[in-house]
């Protein structure tokens, strides 16, 4: 009897993305209502980078469980960070970024992870 089934993990991954999306939506609506244009741009750029990161990890984990390919999962995890760092560097040099708003763009990731972890603790 397998300990780890794909259907249970897909449901868990779907719930994780649902919590992230809800937290992201409410934070985006709040920041877009009360901030300056520079802060809005910084927050949106940060949110885009967070979602790129989450989607790439989600696809890699899904493909890992589907094909049992450890090299694929390790490759995505290892090479995702340098690419993400390069994207952040390019975004901060091209656009005028507010560091506070850019950091607030990470807040929905943290909140969504806390909500998901509290609902899945055993």
What do you see in this structure?
By secondary structure, this protein is mainly alpha-helical. It contains five helices and no strands. It is flat, with a radius of gyration of 16 Å. The N terminus is likely disordered.
- Classify the secondary structure makeup into a structural class: mainly alpha
- The span between the termini is 21 Å
Oligomer: single chain
Overall pLDDT metric:
76
The parts where pLDDT drops under 50 for at least 5 residues are 1-6
> What is the overall number of helices?
5
Task: Please trace the helix and strand order, writing H or E for each element.
Answer: HHHHH
Helix content: over 70%
Main beta sheet strand tally, sense and closure: none
Tags for this entry?
122 residues, mainly alpha, 85% helix, flat
Short description:
This protein has 122 residues and is mostly helical.
Give the helix/strand layout.
Blueprint: H1 6-34, H2 37-67, H3 70-94, H4 99-104, H5 107-119
